[in-house]
Amino acid sequence: MTKIFDLVGNTPLIEIQYFNSKVVPIYAKCEWYNPSGSVKDRAAANMVKEALKGGLLKDKILIDATSGNTGIAYAMIGASLNITTELALPENASEERKLILKNYGVKLHLTSAMEGTDGAQRFVKELVKKNPDKYFYPDQYNNEHNWKAHYKGTGPEIWSQTNQKVTHYIAGLGTTGTFIGTSRFLQEKGVHCTAVHPDNPMHGLEGWKHMETAIVPGIYDTNVADHNVEVSTEKAFQYAKAATQFLGLMISPSAAANLVAAMDLAQTLDSGAIVTVFPDNAMKYLKDAFWSDDDYTIENPFI
């Protein structure tokens, strides 16, 4: 019988149709095909599996800090395995995310919007310090089983799905697990890996971190990226709307930022194959103002 854990991973890889695709194709992993709708199912499932193996969840409440997607993955897994779950997330997280979490039965601790996920992390650390026997804190930002989920899963999937032809990999940085784990696998195959960063601390790319000003995740390794690029929130918003209108893909702002970076990279290459990750789709972001703001509408950038 299939269980929720069995549904995680093996997401489709699609080709992005754009003007130069006959020379340098761009492919994207559609991670909303995971059971709770995002790439974070991979890390959450692996961290919970390892905790269960070690008996770390026995008579404990699972608690972590999240911007939303990892929390939803925890909540789904917790509900399916009867694990009580509490989560801290910034109060400005989308209403859709809060509603999803509440309906999974999660107790929410809303923290300052101004402090982002850094504030949520500080809250959880203090709470666990006061109640060490009550909680199991996987700490997704510092848990090696986060990036290992991608070393074992996302990387090999990309290698296989491209028939070993991928030459360049691109992904943004939040907990950094997706980029670090996938890159470590693909670099063993000679793949060039580019990390995508928001261009300022007050960015609007939910789930991403501006490393120069944020609490840097313990699993982040600056030596992994072969190259680093920055993408503006405005351009990500524009490409999210453009991908919907011209590609038929309703992707999240972070997915759109990865697409921007992939398109920019493609202009510099004469050969190869680029793969990026679309962490989730747009369905949890449709109340964001940019969707109805014509200032973020652009002509077709893919022709």
Describe the structure.
This protein has helices at residues 40-53, 69-81, 95-103, 116-130, 144-161, 177-187, 233-247, 253-266, and strands at residues 13-16, 26-30, 61-65, 85-90, 107-111, 135-136, 168-172, 192-198, 227-231, 274-278. α5 packs across α6 (177-187). The chain is of the alpha/beta class. The strands form 2 sheets. The chain has a 6-stranded mixed beta sheet with strand order 1-2-10-7-8-9. It has a 4-stranded parallel beta sheet with strand order 5-4-3-6. It contains 8 helices and 10 strands. The mean pLDDT is 95. It folds into 2 domains: 4-33 and 153-296, Rossmann fold; 40-136, Rossmann fold, CATH 3.40.50.1100. It is globular and about 55 Å long. α3 (95-103) links the parallel β4 and β5.
